[in-house]
UniProtKB/TrEMBL annotation:
InterPro entries to which the protein is assigned, alphabetical: ICL/PEPM (IPR039556), Pyrv/PenolPyrv_kinase-like_dom (IPR015813), Pyrv_kinase-like_dom_sf (IPR040442)
UniProt KW keywords: Lyase
Domain of life per record: Bacteria
Protein species of origin: Streptomyces xiangluensis
Pfam families for this protein: PEP_mutase
Keyword check for Lyase: yes
Full protein name: Isocitrate lyase/phosphoenolpyruvate mutase family protein
GO molecular function, one term: lyase activity
Chain positions covered by the region annotation Disordered: 232-254
Length: 254
């Protein structure tokens, strides 16, 4: 079992914050997070591209190349693998692993189960040590059908997924029932309106992701600060000093 996989088998769930650039990842690592994910929305928005449309393959690989050698374990949100060809998805996974990624998140977008199974199997065959977190969007994009969720996750487990992800699921009873039906760790997307991280751990959840929340809150804070200044108000909240942000970048030799 890899070091990253082991983080999914502890008594407390892995809280995985999601970064969108070098500074955000370095700042999170400085706060003691031993594993960090990327957020596809943050990567896409920073590049002026749509999220979830397979348009960010190059931007995602570029970010992985910059983050992959950091002092943390890196998991990459690869949307649906940036292709409907399992071989191309496997090649993207190879490149991400070569960049230093130890995990990959693959979403089904409520598309074909057979195709997603083929993608998972291709990635595991190409990079056996890469932790594949197979996401289903039955709650995120669909109506939360429990039987359909179980059907999809069962197929993804059989294909070799190391963990499964169900964003949008916040009901404690349904989470507990799903944990009991699974043979691999369950990943839940944190929601302010859902259970706290400790409660999710008590339910059996082994990984809690923050998704795009940090990116969106950072953007929201920037907008609030600009609005306060324009209105003649002193900005509220906190911000790291210039030298603290500068210190997040590797020092260059003279």
């Amino acid at each position: 079992m890899t070091a990253f996989a082991e983080l999914h088998h502890r008594d407390t769930p892995l809280l995985l914050p999601n970064a969108w650039d070098h500074a955000s990842a370095a700042a999170l690592a400085a706060q003691g997070f031993e594993a960090i994910g990327t957020t596809s929305l943050g990567v896409a928005a920073a590049a002026g591209l749509p999220d979830g449309a397979g348009a960010t393959r190059d931007a995602t690989l570029d970010l992985a190349l910059r983050l992959g050698q950091g002092p943390y374990l890196l998991s990459v949100d690869a949307e649906g693998g940036f292709s409907d060809d399992p071989d191309e998805v496997a090649e993207a996974a190879r490149e991400l692993a070569a960049a230093g990624a130890v995990g990959i998140n693959l979403e089904d977008g409520l598309g074909s189960v057979r195709l997603h199974v083929a993608k998972i199997a291709a990635v595991k065959a190409a990079v056996p040590g890469l932790f594949v977190n197979a996401r289903t969007d039955t709650y995120w994009l669909g109506d939360g059908d429990e039987q359909e969720t179980a059907r999809r996750l069962g197929a993804y487990q059989q294909a070799g997924a190391d963990g499964v992800f169900v964003p949008g699921l916040t009901d404690s009873t349904r989470i507990a029932a799903l944990v009991k039906a699974l043979d691999v760790p369950l990943n839940i997307l944190y929601s302010p309106s859902g259970p706290a991280v400790t409660q999710l751990g008590d339910l059996g959840v082994r990984r809690v992701s923050l998704g795009s929340m940090l990116y969106r809150r950072a953007l929201g804070a920037a907008l609030e600060t600009a609005a306060d200044i324009r209105a003649g108000r002193t900005p509220s909240g906190s911000a790291p000093a210039y030298h603290q942000v500068e210190a997040l970048s590797p020092r260059r030799e003279a």
